């Protein structure tokens, strides 16, 4: 069996964010639609994630969506990064540019920052220099009051697990108990399998916890065999084929050629084509 790279360095957190947010809005998919990394101009200026409210007057009870309006800008920082003052103004500027280019009303837009740390320097700046007020409305959710846009900062490590399993799990500090609970929850596994990028990040970022679970299980299988047995490796392989197919679509190969070379169905290739 080809050895799977499980090194935690240089993990691609941002591509997985769209899937994580889709998992969070899963019960609300008739109301909210998630788009991934969004290019704001022809220059490389990108918003990490945008969530659009499809049903204008819908009431959202999940606390991380409490401030949401029609268009909701999401900025994400990986677990080893943090939200700086400069990041705040960059995202604010991108938001203003998005309003200008997309003709969005300033009263219909919010900004959310998601990270795994407490941004003390940013909060101090916003309170002391900008005169804003910062309030922790519920565990892990900080509301920034004083701006035209509703703004929140979410510390995903402090979110309640029962309400925000996916964002809480989108981290590199999952314990062996956390991993074991996930592996014993077939419903969550089936949901997660729809988003290979999440599974990839979840495993590789927490490989030591997976090794510990494997050891505790007393299995005689190798770690790769163990992961294959629980269905993760097959999903990675499928994701790899899809990434190759996407590159071939971008280079102009026909659907039939891609199907023959990748062993993916024509229906799957059509689905990938529509996602471009």
Describe the structure.
With 276 residues, the protein is of the alpha+beta class. The protein contains twelve helices and nine strands. The chain has a seven-stranded mixed sheet, sandwiched between helices. Strands 2-3 form a two-stranded antiparallel ribbon. Helix 5 crosses helix 8. It starts with 12 loop residues before the first helix and ends with a helix. The model has no long low-confidence stretch (mean pLDDT 86).
Salient structural properties:
globular, alpha+beta, seven-stranded mixed sheet, single chain, 276 residues
List the helices and strands and how they pair.
Blueprint: H1 13-24, E1 32-35, E2 38-39, E3 46-47, E4 49-53, E5 71-76, H2 85-102, E6 109-115, H3 120-128, E7 133-138, E8 141-145, E9 151-155, H4 165-169, H5 176-183, H6 186-192, H7 196-205, H8 207-217, H9 223-229, H10 232-250, H11 255-262, H12 266-275
Parallel strand pairs: 5-6, 6-9
Antiparallel strand pairs: 1-4, 2-3, 4-5, 7-8, 8-9
Helix pairs in contact: 1-7, 5-8, 7-10, 10-11
Helix content: 40-55%
Could you give the order of the helices and strands? HEEEEEHEHEEEHHHHHHHHH
Average residue-wise pLDDT: 86
**Which ranges are low-confidence, i.e. pLDDT below 50, for 5 or more consecutive residues?**
none
Radius of gyration: 20 Å
What order do the strands of the largest sheet run in, or round the barrel if closed? 1-4-5-6-9-8-7
Intertermini distance: 32 Å
Please give the number of β-strands.
9
Q: Quote the beta fraction.
A: 15-25%
> Number of helix segments?
12
Largest sheet composition: 7 strands, mixed
Alpha-beta classification: alpha+beta
What gross morphology would you assign? globular
């Amino acid at each position: 069996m080809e050895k799977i790279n499980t090194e935690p360095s240089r993990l691609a957190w941002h591509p997985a964010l769209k899937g994580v947010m889709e998992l969070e809005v899963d019960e609300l998919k008739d109301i909210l639609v998630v788009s991934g990394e969004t290019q704001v101009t022809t220059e490389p200026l990108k918003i990490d994630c945008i969530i659009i409210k499809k049903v204008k007057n819908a009431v959202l009870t999940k606390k991380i969506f409490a401030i949401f309006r029609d268009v909701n800008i999401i900025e994400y920082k990986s677990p080893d990064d943090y939200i700086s003052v400069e990041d705040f103004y960059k995202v604010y500027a991108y938001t203003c540019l998005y309003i200008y280019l997309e003709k969005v009303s300033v009263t219909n837009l919010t900004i959310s920052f998601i990270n795994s740390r407490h941004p003390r320097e940013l909060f101090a700046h916003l309170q002391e220099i900008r005169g804003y007020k910062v309030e922790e409305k519920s565990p892990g959710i900080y509301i920034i009051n004083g701006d035209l846009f509703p703004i929140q900062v979410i510390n995903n490590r402090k979110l309640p697990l029962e309400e925000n399993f996916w964002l809480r799990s989108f981290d590199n500090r999952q314990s062996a108990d956390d991993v074991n609970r996930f592996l014993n929850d077939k419903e969550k596994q089936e949901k997660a399998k729809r988003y290979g990028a999440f599974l990839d990040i979840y495993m590789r970022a927490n490989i030591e916890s997976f090794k510990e679970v494997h050891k505790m299980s007393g299995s005689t299988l190798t770690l790769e065999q163990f992961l294959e047995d629980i269905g993760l490796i097959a999903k990675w392989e499928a994701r790899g084929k899809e990434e190759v197919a996407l590159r071939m679509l971008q280079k102009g190969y026909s659907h039939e050629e891609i199907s023959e070379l990748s062993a993916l169905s024509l229906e799957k290739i059509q689905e990938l084509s529509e996602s471009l």
